[in-house]
Amino acid sequence: MIKFENVSMEYSNGNAALSDVSLQIDDGEFVFLVGHSGAGKTTLTKLLICEERVSSGRLEVNGFNLEKIRSGKIPKLRRTMGVVFQDFKLFDKMTVYENVAFAMRVVGAKPSLIKKRVPFFLDVVGLGHKSDSFPDQLSGGEKQRVAFARALVNNPDTIIADEPTGNVDTDLTEGIMELLVKINKLGKTVIVVTHDMNIIQQYKKRVIRIENGTVVSDKIGGDFLE
Ligand code: ADP
Fold first, then answer.
1. What is the number of structural domains in the chain?
2. Quick one: which of 35, 43, 127, 155 could link to 17 by a disulfide (CB 3.0–4.6 Å)?
3. Is the Cβ atom of 130 under 6 angstroms away from ligand 1?
4. % the chain with pLDDT above 70
């Protein structure tokens, strides 16, 4: 569960990025997070993975209290979250398999578990046949699927996708959304940060809209950015 209670966040230069945000996302929910550029979406996701700290208020994420979490516990928190960044952040010199396996190696997973899980999640994202390819041999959509497999492989509770349809052709959008719905059906909480009004209107899910650092609407179904 993710619970913001009166959370404010100010950067060290005095920029107030979030002010008095209260919201709850339950386990297994599918949520779109929308808002104009500069609204505070990135800051909100950075707070979730403790890349930034709350300035005031309470923030609970998957059982961790982030306003007082000690730095030694942050890796444990991050293991509960799989983040798919817009630029995918794949290692060019590693194969698809190695890119996904690496995420398990850095958390000290056993080789036997790696051997089982990596092919499983490559199949989930439909890339089982590309394990030995290198990122530069893949299309943008395929690279993104590798990033999804890597985000999933340590079995996180929550997946955050940052503009998943932003860098791929529109004809791939549906496939990505289907993958996100599939991931949600695996029991994961899915948070999609997006500007893509078409998908928001098509998939009648919860839409949290932030502007100027505050939640201005939170409802199921379409929401419009003027
Ligand atoms: P979004 O992701 O919705 O575009 P951000 O969370 O990136 O919005 O930004 C929210 C506000 O915080 C903006 O006013 C932005 O200028 C400011 N901001 C973002 N990152 C920093 C930073 N590292 N230092 C200072 N201010 C920042």
1. 1
2. 43
3. no
4. 98
